[in-house]
Each structure stands twice: as structure tokens, then as C-alpha cells.
Amino acid sequence: MGIIRIRNKKIQRLYFKVLTEEEKNRVFNTKEGKKQFLKERTHGVKIYMEDEQWYDAGYITAKEGFPLQWRKKVNGEYMTINEGAEVDFNAKENGDFNPQIIGDSVDVITNGPENPNPFIYGQKKQESNEGTQSYQKRDYTGVEVGHSINGALAWCNYKFDVSKVLEASNNVHDITKELKEYYKKENPSLSDYDLGAIVGHSVLNACRIGGTKEKLMSNAKSILNDIVPTVTDYVRGVKPEPIVEPDPIPDDDIPF
Fold first, then answer.
1. Are 164 and 100 in the same domain?
2. CA 66 to CA 38: how far, in whole Å?
3. How does DSSP classify residue 251?
4. Phi, psi angles (nearest 5°) of residue 163
């Protein structure tokens, strides 16, 4: 597997995924070649870049009462890297999984603005007139616009016609929105991150296959229903139930 070089790209989203107990029991190799468990870690860090690709950015140990942050050693000093930062880094390709950022390759060209309402680890949710929330809801309009245009260009076989790309972009957005609502009802425990990633990539792949709007919707839904569950089980290490073949009938018992 090769090395991906990302240059002068902005971080559109930082996501901190809570590690399950199963994930904490996994082993990883340090730079010194030693094997360590993830037991002391609390979250996996994932970043979403302008190329509409998620990257795995390592693990953090969050401390109660402190905000969740992605901190890296840049030019010999640790710094907090925010959403909106323009960065360079190298990443290892990882098959069908997210590429993994090589830790000491990260360089920050310009940092993003500090989040005025960061999520504080361990903080209890505060009551408001609009219900219960722990942090300000982010605006992902830019991510959705980029997804719609990428899907539209793939659907149009990368032939640039403004009117056709605009129409296709609107259709991709509507299809994605409808399928997210559908898939959330079918999988209510799914996180917003997993929901967006699974549905978004299913729609993008359906766009690459092409066809009418109805065919695109049908293919995307088929990917979600017929492919995603099996691949998800494989990624999680869930082994399929063995198929038990019936005992063959002896020739003497065949009634003819």
C-alpha cells in the first residue's frame, strides 16, 4: 500500500469517536516497535478533508473537564489543530479503510479558528429551552455542497456542463437527504458520523454507476441494504454463520 500526500488542504471536520471496550483491547505498534494496548485512550480522531475523504488521525486520552482537541507536535512544539486549518501531511493507504495519517508528517500552514463552544469531556448536558444539548450544532453546509457537486460530476461522467451539473447536484443532495432519513430509521443507534459516511459513500458510488435518478436511488439503497451490512460485519470481525450442508441421501433410500 502506498503513501498519500496531502498538500495545502483544509480540515472541514474533526470527529472524536469514543472507543469501545473491544477497540481498547486492540494492540498497536509504537514508533519504537513496542506493542501497546489502547486501554488508556478514550477517543479515535478522524478528520474530513476537502478531497471528501476521511483520514484516521490517531488516538487521544481525554481528561474530564477539558475540551476534546487534536494536538500534534509541529515544528518541535505541540499545538491544537482546529477545524478550518490548512495542513500538509502524509497518510498510509489502508485498503478499504480510511487512510492513516503518519503522525510526524503533519504541518500546519494556517490554523483554523478556535471553537467558541467546544465539547467538554465529562461535562453533563445542560438544559435549554430547546431541549438537551452538550454543544452548539455545527453547520455542515460546506460538506454537503461538496458532496453534492462531487456526486454530480461523477454522475455526469465528469463532462462539465454548468446547467447539467447544477441539476445533478440538486438531485444528489435530495437523494442523500432522503436516504439518510431512511437509513436512520432502519438503524436508530447509528452515530451521525457513521450515518453520513455510509450513506454519503453509497450515493457517490451509485453516481459513478450512473443511470436515471430512479436508478441512482435504487442502486444507492441496494448498496446500503445488500452490501454495507456484510462489509460492516467483516470490518468488525464478525464471522458469518457456517452453512451446514444436509447429509446426502443414500442411493438405497431414493424411491426410484
1. no
2. 20
3. G
4. -65, -40
| pLDDT tens for the 256 residues of the chain, in order | 689 899 989 998 889 888 887 777 776 655 555 555 566 788 889 999 988 889 999 888 888 888 888 988 888 888 999 988 999 999 998 877 889 998 789 999 999 888 767 777 765 544 333 333 333 456 678 888 889 999 999 999 989 999 999 999 999 999 999 999 999 998 887 777 788 889 999 999 999 999 999 999 999 999 999 999 888 888 777 666 565 555 554 555 444 4
Q: Are residues 49 and 105 in the same domain?
A: yes
Q: Could you tell me if residue 206 is inside a domain?
A: yes
Domain boundary among 96, 113, 130: 113
**pTM greater than 0.85:** no
Q: Which domain holds residue 97?
A: 3-113
Separation between Cα atoms, residue 163 and residue 143, nearest integer Å: 21
Helix then strand then coil, in percent of the chain rounded to 5, is 35, 30, 35
Quote the cell numbers at residue 136: 452548539
What are the phi and psi torsion angles at 81 (to 5°)?
Answer: -100, 125
Please report whether residue 243 resides in a domain: no
Instruction: Tell me the C-alpha distance between 130 and 107, whole Å.
Output: 40
Asked if residue 78 and residue 18 are part of one domain, the reply reads: yes
